[in-house]
Amino acid sequence: MTPLRTLLHVVGARPQFIKLAPLLRALAAFPFRSVVLHTGQHYDDRMSQLFFDELGLPAPDHHLGVGSGTHGRQTALVLERVEDVLRQQTPDAVVVYGDTNSTLGGALAAAKLHIPVVHVEAGLRSFNKRMPEEVNRVLVDHLSSLLFCPSETAVENLRREGVTRGDTPDPPSPDHPVVLNTGDLMYDAHLHGLSIAERTSTILRDLGVSPGRYVLLTIHRAENTDDPEQLSRLVTFLNAQTAGADVIFPMHPRTRAAYERCPTRFAASVHLVDPVGHFDLLALLRDATRLFTDSGGLQREAYWLRVPCVTLRDETEWPETVSSGWNTLYRGPASGPVSPAAPLAYGSGRAAALMAGALGRAFAVAVETRR
Ligand code: UD1
Question: Which pLDDT value is given to residue 167?
Answer without folding.
Answer: 66
